[in-house]
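dude i think i finally got it to work??
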Amino acid sequence: MTSDTPSPSRKMASRAYLQTAAQLRTVIANLHLGAGARLPSERELAQQLGVSRPTLREALIVLELQDEVEIRIGSGIYVKNRNAQTGPTGQADLAGTNKAPRISPQREVQAQADDAADSQPAPAQNMSGDDPDGSPLLAHASLKLHSIAEDSPKEVNQMRYFLESAVAAEAARFMSPGLRKKLRKSLTDMQAAMAQNDLSTNARMADADRLFHMTLAQSTDNQLVMQTITGLFDQRYRPIARTMHRHFDDQQAWLAAMQEHEQICQAIEERDPLQAQAAMQRHLSRAHQRLMAIIG
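look at this
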């Protein structure tokens, strides 16, 4: 009898970006590149590994979190620490993530709990495809990658696309006047944060962004929908997604997001479910495109 509960090894195997990260390590080793050397372009790496650009992007972020590569937007990907994959097993170095948007204590506790759950050891897998017996190095690499495993930001965004577009249409039909006022407040908060344009702007924009999407979820008056959307949204505070946002969230990205929120809000205020749904789909598609900006 088999269990419907995914085992840790099956959970890791389903995450293509982890397998791609392991393959990238092999590519770097085979190229004999020293620290500071530039890797082939993102396009070349994706073609060589036979993966999509979003999957490659997530894999690169994994190696960056483990201090093995450095991503320089507009310049490229550089080898940072060739010996990282042969070091002792342990959690990824997340020191660089302290530049991410401020997280409330509740969300931080939950993120730490999720990270601890994900850090349980799993049977090592051969992800290179050319060593059926599995070398100690590959076993170590598998365990180390599993230590920061999380849901793919690409898949999280896709799930949000499916769910939140329907929620926006529902909100246009049934959102109460009080929640419409709260939704509009989130836009006012974004405008104030953007106008201030200081070190607190990114955190305040992230808070206003969260308020917008949580208010839409609240309009359903459905606890399961609210919990699901909250959980999906707050995955942006996990290490991989958080690092992607740190790289690609800038004033131009936030301005675009604010304009997209305005279009959604207007459609809801006009009680137009089709326009609200379409505006949400555009917003989430473009938000993901911004995270997938070309590295170099």
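The CA atoms of residues 7 and 61 lie 24 Å apart.
im so relieved honestly
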